[in-house]
Design goal:
Length: 130
């Protein structure tokens, strides 16, 4: 059929190798990603990978990438994104966050923003190396 634009969307959970166990998946915390907070240079094609550290903007309650140097609330890590999400500058995506259980820090996605301060913000998570 000519003149009909086709798009392809892939759905999946992403690479969850970073999960140290399945315990925390039984009771994840919900939240909404603010797509405008995820810069294209850091998140190519708008893909926010499973395991990315997230912070909550105090004024809006929306989630963005954790940034220890931020001053809008995102300087406090509230959890790890459970499943891959594709965001745009205007999107609002419902998402699940892991905020307790076990995480293998070695397998967190590159550019996830993870640091020692994020670990201190999440006392319910046991971090270990592979």
């Amino acid at each position: 059929m000519e003149g009909i634009a086709q798009t392809r969307t892939e759905y999946g959970s992403g690479n969850r190798r970073w999960l140290g166990d399945l315990h925390g998946l039984n009771s994840t915390e919900g939240g909404t990603l603010n797509g405008a907070l995820f810069p294209a240079g850091t998140f190519p094609d708008g893909l926010v990978r499973s395991g990315t550290d997230l912070g909550r903007v105090t004024a809006s309650g929306l989630l963005g990438p954790y940034d220890n140097a931020a001053t809008d609330g995102r300087q406090t890590c509230v959890g790890h994104l459970v499943s891959d999400q594709v965001v745009t500058a205007t999107s609002r995506n419902d998402a699940a966050l892991l905020n307790h259980g076990a995480v293998v820090r070695t397998y967190l996605p590159t550019g996830s923003g993870h640091d020692a301060a994020a670990e201190a913000d999440l006392p319910g998570i046991r971090y270990r190396n592979a």
